[in-house]
Amino acid sequence: MMEQKSQPQWESKVSTRLTHASADQIWPLFKDFFNLHKWFPSLSTCYGIHGTNGEPGCIRYCAGSSIPSNGSTGENPVSWSTERLIAMDPIQRSLSYEIVDCNIGFTSYVSTVNIAPGGDDHDQSGCVIEWSFTVDPVEGWRLEDLEKKYEVGLQKMAKKMEDAIVKIGSQVKLHSQSVMATTNALETHKPSPQAETETKNR
C-alpha cells in the first residue's frame, strides 16, 4: 500500500507601507509581544503566560474572533491560540513566532514580521511592514482567502499604530511650542542689564 503524500505547506507574505511612522517608531509596538491586542483588530485579549515579554521562548495567549474556531457554536465563538516567540532581531527589526496550540485548525504554523525603513518615492521617513507565514493547509480555507484575511488585518493594525504615533508627535509638538512661547514671553519681559543696574542704584 502506497503512503499518501502530504500536501505542501502554504506559504504567503503580505505587506503594507506607512508614510507617517518610521521603522524605529513601529518596531517597539511589535516587540511588545504580550500586548498585540492594543493594535490588532478583532483580537480582544493578549497576555503573557510564560517567560519575559519580548524574549525568545516567551509565550502569549491570544483570543478574539478574527478566524473562526473549529467546531464553533453560538453567534460569537471565541478563537484562541498560544504563541511562542522563537526569534527576535532588534537590529533588523524582525521577529518570528510559532503557534503552540489553538482551536482554529492551524498546525505547523510559523510567522515572521519584518519592519524595513522606507516610505514612498518622495519620502523615505516611513516604513514597510512585512508579515509572512507558513502553515499546513487549513481545512475549510483556501490560501487566497487566508491571505486576504492577513492583508486586511495588517493594514488595519498598521493604520492604528501610525495614527497613535502621529497623535503622540502632535502632542509633543504642541507641548514644545507652548514651552517655546512661554520662554519667549519671559525673555520679552525680562529687564535689560541696564535696567537692573538702575534699579539697584535707586
TrEMBL record:
<dbReference type="InterPro" id="IPR019587">
    <property type="entry name" value="Polyketide_cyclase/dehydratase"/>
</dbReference>
<feature type="region of interest" description="Disordered">
    <location>
        <begin position="183"/>
        <end position="202"/>
    </location>
</feature>
<dbReference type="GO" id="GO:0004864">
    <property type="term" value="F:protein phosphatase inhibitor activity"/>
</dbReference>
<dbReference type="Pfam" id="PF10604">
    <property type="entry name" value="Polyketide_cyc2"/>
</dbReference>
<protein>
    <recommendedName>
        <fullName>Bet v I/Major latex protein domain-containing protein</fullName>
    </recommendedName>
</protein>
<dbReference type="InterPro" id="IPR023393">
    <property type="entry name" value="START-like_dom_sf"/>
</dbReference>
<dbReference type="InterPro" id="IPR053249">
    <property type="entry name" value="LFS"/>
</dbReference>
